[in-house]
Structure formats: C-alpha cells, structure tokens
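Fill in residues.
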C-alpha cells in the first residue's frame, strides 16, 4: 500500500478528517489519474456527507455533494471500464441516490453500474451479491444465489479489505456478517 494512503488512513481512523482531506487533495493533484487514490478519495467524500457528525468542517454538505458529483464525472470519464469503479460508484449511488441528483434516474443508473461491474468481473462474489441485492423483487433463484454468496464474500472481504481506511472499514462493517 502507498505510504501516503497509509498516512491518510491513520488520520481517518483518528477522525482527523480535515487533515485527511488536505492530504487526499495533495495526493490527487500529484497523480490525479491513479484509480487507487481516486477510489479512496471518492469514498471519503461520500462518507463525509453521511457519517461525519461535525468532525469534517472544511465544507458544508452542499459543497461536498458538488465535489462528490465532480469526482463521479471524473471517474465515469477515466475509469468506465474498471470493474471496481463501477461497483463503488454504483453502490454509493444506489445507497443514497439523492446525494447525486434525480433520485429515480440515478437509482437506475447505479444499478446499471453494479450490473456492469458484475459483468466485467463475473467471478467477483461481492459484485455479484450486491448486484443481486439491488433487485426489488428477486426471484427464488436470485435469492438462493445471493444467500450462497454471503460466505464467499465474507472470506474475500477479510482477505482483500482487511486494511485501514474508511473504505476498508465500511466493507468490513457492511459486508462481513457474523
């Protein structure tokens, strides 16, 4: 893992979000096209809107929403064929579509991104499970497949996302069921 990201993850874990934001911006300004940096920053912005409880004071939520939308557009232009981009963007949009604009339109778009992630990486259990979980009225086969993926996802999350940072912590809280 990049040492700069590790420093940011430490700040995030200490709830020093203003400092983390400044370091993200410095990092992105030095290598703005790097997907690894981008995904953690994008998720950071999304988290700041939803979970900060006043610890992030650089911007209000209006400015954060604008920044988040700008980063989404950047991601769509630069990472459209990266499965993990489609997953993260699709997931964040389907969870809180109103943060991005037109609720109904964006909820459909988020599901399209989840579908694309699943198609780009068909063996990724997390992508498939979340895509199946986005169905409003899944059939029995889809429910079975979803339930069958849970254990596999737990193992993959613990292996791939066991590190620090808001994104990894979120994955472990939401997708690793005990």
């Amino acid at each position: 893992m990049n040492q700069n990201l590790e420093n940011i993850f430490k700040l995030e874990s200490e709830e020093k979000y203003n400092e983390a934001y400044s370091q993200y911006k410095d990092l992105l300004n030095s290598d703005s096209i790097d997907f690894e940096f981008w995904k953690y920053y994008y998720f950071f912005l999304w988290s700041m809107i939803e979970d900060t409880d006043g610890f992030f004071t650089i911007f209000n939520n209006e400015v954060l929403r604008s920044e988040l939308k700008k980063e989404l557009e950047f991601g769509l232009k630069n990472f459209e064929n990266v499965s993990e981009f489609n997953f993260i963007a699709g997931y964040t949009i389907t969870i809180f579509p109103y943060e991005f604009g037109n609720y109904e339109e964006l909820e459909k778009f988020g599901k399209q991104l989840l579908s694309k992630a699943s198609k780009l990486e068909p063996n990724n259990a997390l992508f498939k499970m979340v895509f199946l979980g986005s169905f409003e009225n899944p059939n029995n086969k889809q429910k079975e497949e979803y339930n069958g993926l849970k254990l596999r996802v737990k193992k993959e999350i613990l292996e791939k996302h066991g590190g620090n940072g808001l994104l990894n912590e979120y994955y472990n809280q939401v997708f690793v069921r005990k």
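The chain has one domain: 3-175.
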